[in-house]
Design goal:
The protein has 577 residues and is an alpha/beta fold. It has two domains: 309 residues, Up-down Bundle (ABC transporter transmembrane region fold); 134 residues, 3-Layer(aba) Sandwich (Rossmann fold). Helices cover 64% and strands 10% of the residues. The chain has 18 helices and ten strands. A six-stranded mixed β-sheet has the order 6-7-8-3-9-10, sandwiched between helices. Helix 1 runs antiparallel to helix 2, helix 4 packs antiparallel against helix 5 and helix 7 packs antiparallel against helix 8. The longest helix is centred in the middle third of the chain and has 54 residues. The chain is elongated and about 115 Å long.
Length: 577
């Protein structure tokens, strides 16, 4: 938690006021039993009604002041904890946004969601409890002991036996509960992952009639979470009777020994009653301390998970003296590029060498798993190469400012992702200040304008989460329009036209070539028909470039490309035979 305290510093005033108001409440609570003893011994036993009335009014006044203290502490601690939670969530989200793909691969999406929500909520609650209960309990504990000792030192010997036993119980619970609460958070991660996968893939689940299987998956994940919680809570269930036993024996001891002292004349009845009240406050404060320490165990597990995200080393960052000059032409060159996803894995790409001139349309084709998507992901530095160099306009991309680099590149990934909102908002996601003409032009190039204007509200049609109301081809065309509206120097279409027909695909490529001038374009595709009208084709096999040239050149000179071509042509012939 020490590493997270900085998020409370802007709210120092609130974190000071909360304990001060709690101190007021505790002092009022501690003073009440003494006044009660005064009423009993000097009022009730002596039939002094005016003393009872006056002292009672004083008790009411003190209770009212204590209430103000309690309300004030609750208000200030709640504000401090809410601000703390808000800032921590913002920082976590900001950090995740800075992650490279390698960083993101380290954490599951469901785990990041849990850390941003459940784990932060645990820490938020801990802050509020710290400013209230962790202030109240120690003050009540220390104050209760002082007041009890002031009443009778001999009777306080009972504390020497009961308090160490209670402390030992809570220490044992804390030691054993910490790993259990960490397991609870991991089970929440797993359950969130099952729910997320099911909701995202609900159409696949329904089409394959796998509802029973998914229900069983969720039941299993839910049961794992339940068992983890029960295992952790079981410690409390077992410990609480022992705690109550020690507490009741302590009160019984006070009653027995206090009665003996009253009979001997060493104590008054009211003092024994006050002492029992103080004993209750001391034991109650110990219970609060125990509960907060147990919660600290759970919050510590959440804190470690949050800190893990905050301290994750971002492997792709701009250098201090990074080149901030904008990309001018979009000439791309790979020099002896090697890449692997981790130091322990084999190279996914091996000795990649090619050069692309500004404005050229480059096709990338190869077998599944040959490294096509990996290759284009290296250009905007979504991953960093293992060795070699990638040059844009003669400059190593690792020497360029990342923001400048990515501002000049538009990418449409394999999985088309649209966001909740209107079609207009999704297209403008590529350029916030785009005007109507730019929106329509980019949609026309992407061959999306015609189907958009046929929708009920045209460009203002709400498409729903992930674009569920659109077909695959329509989503791809909107995603392409979103990429084109930036007017990038480099455009990457990673299998982004797989859901559109051949004619529409060729119109998109023609539009990119003819309308958006000097835009170097990389098109990853499986279809040989896509490759027929590009300038050059990169042929990949098992992470190695096995061919580079035009469609006609490769058909003549490259056996591997010719084999792909022949297999797809034969497949077309068989389909229409």
């Amino acid at each position: 938690m020490k590493k997270l305290i900085k998020y409370l510093k802007p709210y120092t005033l609130l974190t000071i006021l909360a304990p001060i108001f709690m101190l007021i409440e505790v002092v009022c609570d501690l003073y009440q039993p003494t006044l009660l003893a005064h009423i009993v011994d000097n009022g009730i036993l002596k039939n002094n009604f005016s003393l009872i009335l006056n002292t009672g009014l004083i008790m009411l006044g003190i209770a009212f002041i204590g209430m103000i203290g309690g309300v004030g502490c609750t208000v200030f601690s709640s504000l401090a904890s809410q601000y703390f939670g808000r800032d921590l969530r913002n920082e976590l989200f900001k950090r995740v946004q800075q992650f490279s793909f390698k960083n993101i691969d380290k954490f599951r999406t469901s785990s990041l969601i849990t850390r941003l929500t459940n784990d932060v909520n645990q820490l938020q609650t801990l802050v509020m409890m710290s400013l209230r209960i962790m202030v109240r309990a120690p003050l009540l504990f220390i104050g209760g002991i002082i007041m009890a000792l002031s009443l009778n030192k001999s009777l306080s010997v009972i504390f020497l036996f009961s308090i160490p036993i209670l402390i030992l119980i809570f220490l044992v619970i804390m030691k054993r509960s910490f790993p259990l609460f960490g397991e609870i958070q991991r089970r929440i991660d797993y359950m969130n992952n099952v729910v997320r996968e099911n909701l995202v893939g609900i159409r696949v689940v329904r089409s394959f009639r796998r509802e029973d299987y998914e229900r069983e998956r969720f039941r299993y994940a839910n049961s794992l979470l339940m068992n983890a919680v029960i295992k952790a809570v079981m410690l409390l269930i077992i410990a609480m009777p022992f705690f109550m036993l020690v507490m009741n024996f302590s009160i019984l001891g006070v009653l027995w020994f206090g009665g003996f002292l009253v009979n001997r004349g060493s104590m008054k009845v009211g003092e024994v009653m006050a002492y029992i009240n103080y004993m209750g406050q001391i034991m109650f404060s110990l219970m609060m301390i125990g509960n907060i320490l147990i919660f600290v165990s759970r919050a510590s597990a959440s804190a470690s998970r949050v800190i893990e995200v905050l301290e994750e080393k971002i492997d792709i960052q701009s250098k201090e003296n990074a080149d901030k000059n904008p990309i001018g032409e979009g000439k791309v060159k790979f020099e002896h590029v090697y890449f692997s996803y981790s130091d322990k894995e084999e190279y996914v790409l091996k000795d990649i060498n090619f050069e692309v001139n500004p404005g050229e349309v480059i096709g990338i084709i190869g077998t599944t798993g040959s490294g096509k998507s990996t290759l284009v992901n290296l250009i905007p530095r979504l991953y960093d190469i293992s060795s070699g160099r990638i040059l844009i306009d003669g400059k190593d991309i690792r020497d360029m400012n990342i923001k400048i680099l990515r501002d000049a590149i538009s990418m449409v990934p394999q999985e088309t992702i649209l966001f909740s909102g209107t079609i207009r908002e999704n297209i403008c996601w590529g350029k916030e200040d785009a005007n109507e003409e730019e929106i329509i032009n980019s949609a026309k190039i992407a061959q999306a304008h015609d189907f958009i204007i046929r929708l009920p509200q045209g460009y203002d049609t709400v498409i729903g989460e992930r674009g569920v109301t659109l077909s695959g081809g329509q989503k791809q065309r909107i995603a392409i329009a979103r990429a084109l509206i930036k007017k990038p120097k480099i455009l990457i279409l990673d299998d982004a036209t797989s859901a559109v027909d051949f004619i529409t695909e060729q119109k998109i490529i023609h539009g990119v070539r003819e309308i958006i001038r000097n835009c170097t374009t990389f098109i990853v595709a499986q279809r040989i028909s896509t490759m027929m009208n590009v300038d050059k084709i990169i042929v990949l096999d098992k992470g190695v470039v096995v061919g580079f040239g035009s469609h006609s050149e490769l058909l003549k000179e490259n056996d591997f490309y010719r084999e792909i071509y022949k297999s797809q042509i034969d497949e077309e012939v068989m389909r229409y035979a």
